[in-house]
């Protein structure tokens, strides 16, 4: 009995053990009750200096992944295809050789770019993926790299790289001290925060309101967050840019600005936004001009204000303009690097300052078929299908996916699934057979969260408070299992051994030596040179070490060459021409047209965990949500099935009436539409529904290459 803090628990352990949840960006500290070696309950750890006892339903379900009989525990190989496919377990050695052979053969026959890589969301939540996964991908030297980032946050990175000099140098709302929190297109009450690691958002919001602060939300749906806001306004999907530009116009016209001394190009912004008035924005966005003016004045007058925009504004056609305008709003009002405004976290492992993550670059190469620029070494995942299906030099012939499900999570996923079947070879590093991995020839399943050591390289750098926490594995890895870093190290070696052209022996030996060091050893070294906290301290305090509230750090921490910030990043502001052209477009919209947006629910986790009992019970939540007036106008009864059609495809799904929707807007959750059911190796999926990404359009892109998943024009018929 008792709290055992270090080293995996013995088989028959009974007692409590600290753990960590890696399912979302809130990185909650956990307390697990274990009986006879099995987790019987999970609570939030009150002693964690960041999460302070917070937990959500997904964290409670964390052990369901570990215990899940559907989860793959040994590599499998596919024999046959589609409905007739059979999966046979093979041993690690054979599986790793098969994958290495498949990838190397494609590269040897057709060149390096014949390998396509897709990295999914859980990579950001695994230490081994940072220390070994990314270096392994680098050794493949392909330009056909894709990830979930281009259906998510590339606009943030694109803007931060240009304005602050590093793509992950992102100012974080100082939620614990701000008095005005202005939110565009985020739903932290369901998502628990993103690009703002903010566990226990509800508690921090209550404190904000208690000290007289306000939260104002702009969202086309009256979300869980909108409902607890001081004020919520509907905004037409895809139109936030004109609202934000109008706010800048008001700030400058009324001289409500007080930028820091190291901020340049204020006059350029004045010129760029001069014709974007609140009156111009009102008919386009649905947000009244007087509301835009009032919010702007309140924001400028607040004693510490923070504007924040998340998925709803990064995944639309002008995501970069929105993220730029949000930075301008914060910078012009002097709220960046200010307590109560936004601040830059100082993590114990400074991935930004240490160059562990590259600063960013753009348009060094372009996609072969459509000529879309890379960002940060990746092409938009929206071009992956055509790069597989279009013959010619540089065509992708083999794909490796790592912890991702692009068939459900990226635009026109259905066509991507078809493209996967045309490959010479496909492999997946994943713990489940799902809509994507079912197309692979081999699946390599690594260990899961409770079996591996954890430290959040990424999210401490985006957190609302400076803390550091190392969580040793709760359970030992079974002898015949592999950690993800071990899989990556082996793949790097075995692929390289088979490549016709490889680096010299000396370089290969150096790489190999690095890959041999475990993530924990690499982390220990990084901490030692960072000198903020040591591994020894973290081991002594598995609940986490508090390093204090965020502090002003500019201009010292700026990564720009001149340590100054330009408000006119031209790769973004040049895109205003495209915005103007789209606003001036004389195309008359179809009167039957509705705009489709996505949604997240507290009990959903992107496209997976739809087989855990705990998260799937309760009211169904797969339906298309639609305003009652829009239903009535089409003679549609709630609860019936409707056909939703976009340029790309069409789905049939149950519809529900929802006063919470802005009229003219409909919503579907993403990550639904499962096709792998109840087989021994598959998800025993317990939810109905369709994939929103059978409707989203790979042609709709932001200037950064990010997909415009929201605001998709659709029609809905009975
Ligand atoms: N229309 C629409 N589409 C969206 C979104 C939206 O809002 N609307 N959201 C987008 C966003 S923000 C994101 S991040 C993407 C997510 O898109 P993806 O990353 O492609 O999809 P996930 O559902 O996160 O898939 C995670 C996969 O990782 C596997 N996995 C889980 N844990 C591990 C592990 O420890 N190791 C390994 N190797 N595998 C593991 C799971 O089995 C699953 O297959 O979806 C995007 N798609
Ligand atoms: N429970 C749960 N939590 C999650 C996830 C999950 O799947 N489930 N996924 C995690 C991931 S990968 C991410 S990236 C984060 C995302 O975190 P958030 O961005 O907070 O999450 P979303 O719920 O996607 O919020 C987007 C909001 O934008 C709104 N919106 C849509 N279009 C527009 C528009 O044009 N303008 C405006 N102003 N708003 C718009 C939507 O109605 C929605 O409320 O969540 C993370 N947390
Ligand atoms: S909010 Fe929920 S899913 Fe996110 S880290 Fe905390 S417990 Fe896990
Ligand atoms: Mo995401």
UniProtKB/TrEMBL annotation:
Extract the Pfam families matched here.
Answer: Molybdop_Fe4S4 (PF04879), Molybdopterin (PF00384), Molydop_binding (PF01568)
> What InterPro entries does the record point to?
Asp_de-COase-like_dom_sf, MoPterin_dinucl-bd_dom, Mopterin_OxRdtase, Mopterin_OxRdtase_4Fe-4S_dom, Prok_Mopterin_Oxidored
Q: Which UniProt keywords apply?
A: Iron, Iron-sulfur, Metal-binding
Q: Give the matching SUPFAM superfamilies.
A: ADC-like, Formate dehydrogenase/DMSO reductase, domains 1-3
A GO molecular-function annotation: iron-sulfur cluster binding
Taking every annotated instance into account, which residue ranges of this chain make up the domain 4Fe-4S Mo/W bis-MGD-type?
14-70
Q: Which PROSITE patterns match?
A: 4FE4S_MOW_BIS_MGD (PS51669)
Q: What PANTHER family does the database record attribute to this sequence? A: TRIMETHYLAMINE-N-OXIDE REDUCTASE
Query: Into which family does the record put it?
Result: Belongs to the prokaryotic molybdopterin-containing oxidoreductase family.
Name used for this protein in its record: Anaerobic selenocysteine-containing dehydrogenase
According to its UniProt entry, this protein's organism is: Nocardioides ginsengisegetis
């Amino acid at each position: 009995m008792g709290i055992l803090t270090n080293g995996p628990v013995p088989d028959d352990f009974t007692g409590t053990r600290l753990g960590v949840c890696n399912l979302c960006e809130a990185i909650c500290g956990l307390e697990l009750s274990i009986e006879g070696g099995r987790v019987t309950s999970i609570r939030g750890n009150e002693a964690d200096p960041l999460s302070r006892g917070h937990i959500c339903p997904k964290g409670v379900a964390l052990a369901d992944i570990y215990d899940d009989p559907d989860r793959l525990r040994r590599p499998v190989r596919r024999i046959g295809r589609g409905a007739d496919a059979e999966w046979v377990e093979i041993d690690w050695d054979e599986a790793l050789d098969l994958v290495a052979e498949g990838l190397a053969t494609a590269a040897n026959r057709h060149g390096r770019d014949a390998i396509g890589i897709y990295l999914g969301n859980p990579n950001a939540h695994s230490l081994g993926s940072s220390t070994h996964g990314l270096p392994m991908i680098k050794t493949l030297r392909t330009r056909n790299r894709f990830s979930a980032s281009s259906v998510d946050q590339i606009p943030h990175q694109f803007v931060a790289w240009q304005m602050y000099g590093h793509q992950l140098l992102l100012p974080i709302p100082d939620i614990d001290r701000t008095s005005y929190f202005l939110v565009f297109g985020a739903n932290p009450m369901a998502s628990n925060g993103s690009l703002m690691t903010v566990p226990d958002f509800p508690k921090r919001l209550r404190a904000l309101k208690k000290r007289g602060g306000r939260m104002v939300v702009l969202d086309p749906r009256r979300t869980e967050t909108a409902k607890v806001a001081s004020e919520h306004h509907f905004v037409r999907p895809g139109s936030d840019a004109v609202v934000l530009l109008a706010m800048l116009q008001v700030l400058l016209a009324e001289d409500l600005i007080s930028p820091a001394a190291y901020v340049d190009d204020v006059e350029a912004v004045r010129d760029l936004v001069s014709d974007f008035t609140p009156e111009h924005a009102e008919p386009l966005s649905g947000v009244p001009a007087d509301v835009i003016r009032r919010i702007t004045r309140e924001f400028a007058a607040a004693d510490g204000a923070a504007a924040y925009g998340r998925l709803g504004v990064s995944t639309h056609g002008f995501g970069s303009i929105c993220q730029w305008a949000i930075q301008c709003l914060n910078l012009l009002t002097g709220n960046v690097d200010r307590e109560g405004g936004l601040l830059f976290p100082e993590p114990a492992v400074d991935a930004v300052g240490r160059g562990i993550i590259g600063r960013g670059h753009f348009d060094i190469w372009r996609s072969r078929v459509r000529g879309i620029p890379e960002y940060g070494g990746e092409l938009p995942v929206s071009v992956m299908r055509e790069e597989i299906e279009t013959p010619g030099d540089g065509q992708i012939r083999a794909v490796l996916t790592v912890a991702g499900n692009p068939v459900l999570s990226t635009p026109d996923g259905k066509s991507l699934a078809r493209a996967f079947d045309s490959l010479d070879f496909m492999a997946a590093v994943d713990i489940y057979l799902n809509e994507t991995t079912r197309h692979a020839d081999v699946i390599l399943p690594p260990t899961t969260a409770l079996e591996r050591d954890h430290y959040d390289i990424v999210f401490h750098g985006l957190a609302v408070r400076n803390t550091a926490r190392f969580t040793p594995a709760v359970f030992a890895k079974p002898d015949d299992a592999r950690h993800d870093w071990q899989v990556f190290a082996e793949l790097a070696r075995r692929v390289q051994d088979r490549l016709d052209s490889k680096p010299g022996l000396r370089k290969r030996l150096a790489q190999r030596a690095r890959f041999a060091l475990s993530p924990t050893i690499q982390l220990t070294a990084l901490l030692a040179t960072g000198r903020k906290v040591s591994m020894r301290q973290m081991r002594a305090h598995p609940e986490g070490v508090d390093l204090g509230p965020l502090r002003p750090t500019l201009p010292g921490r700026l990564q720009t060459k001149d340590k100054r910030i330009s408000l006119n990043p031209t790769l973004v502001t040049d895109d205003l021409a495209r915005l103007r052209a789209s606003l001036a477009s004389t195309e008359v919209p179809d009167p039957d047209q509705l705009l489709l947006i996505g949604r997240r629910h507290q009990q959903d986790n992107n496209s997976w965990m739809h087989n855990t009992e705990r998260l799937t019970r309760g009211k169904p939540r797969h339906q298309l949500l639609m305003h009652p007036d829009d239903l009535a106008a089409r003679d549609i009864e709630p609860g019936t099935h409707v056909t939703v059609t976009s340029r790309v495809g069409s789905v049939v799904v149950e519809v529900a009436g929802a006063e919470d929707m802005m009229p003219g807007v409909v919503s579907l959750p993403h990550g639904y539409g499962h096709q792998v059911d109840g087989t021994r190796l598959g998800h025993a999926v317990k939810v109905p529904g369709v994939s929103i990404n059978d409707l989203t359009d790979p042609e709709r892109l932001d200037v950064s290459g990010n997909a415009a998943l929201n605001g998709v024009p659709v029609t809905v018929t009975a």
